[in-house]
Amino acid sequence: MVNMVNTDPRILRLILFILCSAGHVLCVEEFGKVGGNVTLKPLVTGKPESILWKFNNDKVVEFEDERERWFQFKGVLDNNTGVLTLKELKKGNSGPYEAEILIKGNLVNTKFTLQVMDAVGVPTISCKVADDEKITLTCSVDSSVGPVKTTWSGPDGPHEGKTVIVSKDTKNESVYFCTASNKVSKESAPEFTLKDCYSPGPDSVVPIVIGVLVAVAVVLILGILAVVYREKIKTYLPVSSR
Fold it and tell me: Residue 34: which of 140, 184, 154 has the closest Cα?
């Protein structure tokens, strides 16, 4: 059996094309989220006499003579429609599926290709101010989840892409939003105000903190020296008599 865990999505689509081209069968492409559920619905009418679902030509579940048997994966089979729901999806569930359903003596085949992927994480927005004062906003998200689409909304209207360039004439109070999505999920970054680009970043805060600490240390040292000097002076001063 072919290992489909890390198969490139383009390869899965090629497999689907080859399988669908091999015979006169209905072919469907489906997507599922890791840890979630997905439902595969064969387009058949009538009550099935028997049902067989296969993954990579290996049996998944079988219904025959009013008896249901599972061979792999977790899920639910609707014996009245042939609909298969796979649960607690893992990337190992990715690959080609086939339903063979017997209705009134006719065998109906439906082929699917399932791609299981991670949900996108919450994106973050960063900015960079160029010498000409133009601002580049970047929407960053974990790329390991596969192809991710990023979109922007703001005073300049909707924009698609990882980055957006803001004119220097744009008001600092302008607010931008970034959304990242894939086939199974969508997440948005917290709103970003343009004036935040000019807020002190970590690189500029460090020297300030160091300067404050040095100043405090100098004051403490001077205070200690003053106390020591005063105590030494006392030893040389005459004791006043009453």
Answer: 184
**CA Rg value for the chain:** 33
* Residue extents of the structural domains in the chain: 9-117, 124-198, 202-242
For the stretch 3-26, pLDDT in tens is: 444 455 556 555 555 555 554 455
Distance CA 108, CA 180 (A): 39
Helix or strand holding residue 21 (H, E): helix 9-21
Which of the four CATH numbers 3.30.230.10, 2.60.40.10, 2.170.130.20, 3.20.20.70 does domain 124-198 have?
2.60.40.10
**DSSP element (H, E) containing 188:** strand 186-188
Q: Provide the pLDDT for residue 24.
A: 46
DSSP-assigned letter for residue 198: G
Task: Look up tokens 């000019």; give the residue.
Answer: 198
Per-residue pLDDT reduced to its tens digit, 40-82: 999 888 999 999 999 999 999 999 999 999 999 999 999 999 9
Residue 3 identity: N
Residue 212 has pLDDT above 80, yes or no: no
Asked if residue 50 lies in contact with residue 64, where contact means CB atoms within 8 angstroms, the answer is yes
Report in angstroms the alpha-carbon separations of 153 from 139, 173, 184, 193, 198: 12, 15, 21, 12, 21
Domain 9-117 has CATH 3.40.50.300: no
The answer to whether the beta carbons of residues 137 and 176 sit under 8 Å apart is: yes
